[in-house]
Structures
1.
Amino acid sequence: MVDDILKKYPNDVKLVIKNFPLSFHKQAMQAAKYVLAAKNQGKYDELYHRVMENYRQLKTNEDLPLQLAGELGLDVEQLKLDANSPAIANQIQTEVNELKNSGVPRMSVPKFLINGKEPQGRSLAAFSEVIEAELKKKK
Amino acid sequence: MMKRSIKYFTLLTSSLLLISCFEADTASLEKAISKVQDNQKIILQKIESLEKGQQGLRKNLAANTKTDPKKDNKPKADPNKVYNVAVGNSVIKGNPNAKVTITEWMDFQ
């Protein structure tokens, strides 16, 4: 859905992706680390989508992101090293804290803010409404 | 002659008995009918009060569906509140200079 928004407003809207791996999803944190590490090899988007498509298998296979990374032609050993670096751990922790400290009620994921405002729903229409209002303001 | 009078007497008493029996039966029948009628009145009254109760329930139900607690009492996002969150080192997709920023927190499960 958000991809549709980016297509609809290619110049006016950007997406900032922040991690919020839920603590009761054991494999979520590791998956977040692998995907973030893929950025170093210029394959963040690709790995992100592959992991999202196969997220159901994550529960039983923590190494799934590594397999998918291999299929995408990434250097898996390098990916492992980068994923387990303190820089990536810090970034995820920062992103988690940003939501926790934002004052946003009901910290559920996925959570969206559009120029800091919570949309009244998770549809193309609901998002467009906020985006249009924001664009009018800036003109 | 004697035999004949005995015959009449028996006939008379037995018919008298029969009549009295019949009368006793009508009396008990009438009693039973009035009892049934009384019961019917009670039943009708109960049905009426049940119908009233049902109407009340329907009204309550209609009122409840109008303000479904699950849907309407759910705290809605405040459209005017602004939560400022920095971009930081987070991944950006799309035009970095875009006027509108969507910030998404996600989880892979």
2.
Amino acid sequence: MTDRLVTIDRSRLPEPGPSGPVRFPAIERSALPNGLNVWTVRHAQVPVVACSLLIRRGASSDPAGKHGLAAMTADMLDEGSGDRSAIEIHEAIARLGTQLETDIGSDGIVAGFTVLARFVDRALALLADVVVRPAMRDGDMARVRQLRLHRLTQLRDVPSAIADRAFLGLIYGEHPYGHAPIGTELALASMTVDDVRAFHERAIRPSVATLIAVGDCDHAAIHQMALDVFGGWHGAAADGEPGDPALPQPPRLSIVPRARAPQSELRIGHVAVARDTPDYHALVTANMVLGGQFSSRINLNLREDKGVTYGARTAFDFRRRPGPFVLQVGVQTSATAQSIAESIGEISAMVSTRPITVEELRLAAASLTRGYARNFETADQIARAAAQLALYDLPDTSFAEFVPRIERLTTEEVTAAMARHLHASRLVTVVVGDYDAVGADLDRLGLGDPVILSPETF
Amino acid sequence: MNLSFTKQTLANGLDVLLHEDHDCPIVAINVWYHVGSKNERPGHTGFAHLFEHLMFEGSAHHDHGYFQPLQGAGASLNGSTNSDRTNYWEVVPTAALELGLWMESDRMGYLLPALTEAKFSNQRAVVLNERRQNYENRPYGLSAMAILAALFPPDHPYHWTTIGEVADLNAVRLDEVHAFFARYYHPANASLTLAGDIDPDQALALVRAYFEDIPAGENVEPVRAAASLDRDVRILLEDRVELPRLCMAWLSAAMFTEGDADLDLAADLLANGKTSRLYRRLVFEERIATDVSASQNSREIGGYVQLAATSAPGHALGELERVILEEIGRLGADGPTDDEIERGRVQAEAQFVFRLQTVGGFGGKSDQLNAYNVFLGDPAYFDRDLQRYCSVTNRSLQQTVRRYFDPARRVTLSIVPRGRIELAAPDSVPAVVS
């Protein structure tokens, strides 16, 4: 009875046509006399503006012995401003129907709000209040420091957090990337409000800052508002980028014992490569094949074939300086050694016995390129993308070039890039799990005697 | 504010909702099946969620896994199960809409021929690992199980969590999958929304072509169950945690019913964010807790409102309980301030506007249209949903708090470090969690 406008054929899958070119919306730029960059992107579909301030100094600028200082400083930003108390600032933010989001990474701090467009002037004024003139009072500092210490205490029972921190410490040692932004109990316990003020003076300065506003807003208006509220901010940030200290030579296998744990949390990887590598596109693509999505080799092996995990993921963490490559997975305790062997086998096969096939490359490239547009749907997504340009000194053409550069890759290029940056012999494995149950199996992996790390260290 | 759509119901009972938004060259495909852990029976818990996993393992005409062709077309995709519904979504590039409909319709119509014992036992193993990862090996991970089991009687379907009990998962057999599929996974128990870069006529023609031939199933009778508490149920769990946590829960309003929106705002002003009363009192001023939170968990045939607070070192949970009850009592006695009501309304407005930003995924526009359609039969509910929050008054919030937060009828769960029972709220007895 139905007028069939479409004929369907269940004997084969429909082949989607090509996706159109992705045009990242234009970024309008200006700068204030104090050096603050002002970037805006008009994206007016919904009456919302995402406002964020990127500071190109992060946890890697923590001084030796004061790990956690950058994060503590970021946490202290909204604890009062000028004469206003912490509570007054929190209430002012709440009246805009939003909350301050701060994100602290190794290379940068981002602080900002997403607000209804009618609040954008008040949001920018509040952002300036907290970033430029934080009160940083002693009493508030004592409270915030205590809360962060409690958080560290609680993290001792979170296997994924223990594994992340143990892994970073092992592969980076004393390198500025060797600690998590939250720092250590020892460092936090002795941290004072003077330390925080000094960090603010040294790092949170307009010379390393970019204000990004994306949404239903106009560049000239945002520039004028920024001038009004950020114009009185001064100073240049101190250098934050020392050269690369020597990396340690960690043991290949370590375990943080967790008695009677039903799963082992695993990290497998090594220090790899910086964001500015010419191999960026090849590595992103190769990672999709290895462990970057559900239908990747490692996930299909450990989850869909063996059933020993809820999911496995690999990633290159591209940063200003060489960041880690890491596999993250939680596996049932009985399958710990098997999963380590399978994972190392998959990583090593990519650059030896089973290089990426033409079909795998086609699927990986398509999964990255055909849906690329969905990365720029919301104001928040566009603001985050713009922040990447500012943080890593990338050209505006980066997003427009992404798809064609991926599409041009050959299997030889992708395999060669993996061989340059992934080295099976250098892989470091960390297990957070039940040592009594898995110890004997670990001994048979051929990775040397596992080094036992004390849970108290993390 | 508006979330525009058209709705058609196909002859087999499938509801089809279409929403146009051409800002981004993508289409969200979102399918809800009106089935969740509420449709399970004691002894068979965890089944609806396990079944969700099987929906990603291939169907009769594409028996090679669900993810690969879609990820190869640039789609992102996922699914989830809760007590009342199971949802599945893909966000595809515009040109891959037909592929997405091919895949969704094939598993709606032709899942079972591809389902083997091997796939079934593999996904059971995966689910047991999901349970280990997200519940057993996670601090405080078993608290939801203890709370639900104490709030709802054993024959009430909210008595158990969606992940289910290990013994039930181990006991389930492949033939149960067939019966479950026949009963719940058919067009008349489903709602399909397409949102994004579509031409509505073409999109509807595609939907008809792919879904219209799937046979209708029998109507699913609504689940009915009642719960009531007549006392303060005081229980404790020992867990691998450093700091004790107190969870207090009360039976409350079902979703979209009277009191539901008031309870959402009451939860926020009591315990969410740095301006909330309990954050101020417990964390900011007295410094006896490290965090507080609250939520109104409104479900289809009932709800519960929950408060949680974690002790600072050296403070027992009884101290926290006293302050929490005091603040609830004060809110019930004096009501909220004008400023609190105003902040709550602005936050609600902002949250509704923010939700309009994305077409797909969990909570995107397609998911919301299906939620309103499946639970209310009224996809046009978006504006009225916001209106529920804008109409909350000082008085309605105060009365709702008085009505639901009865100190004599609640569940009080203490989660304490192993061997530190003395930190629990007084008079608590061990909870049984499997």
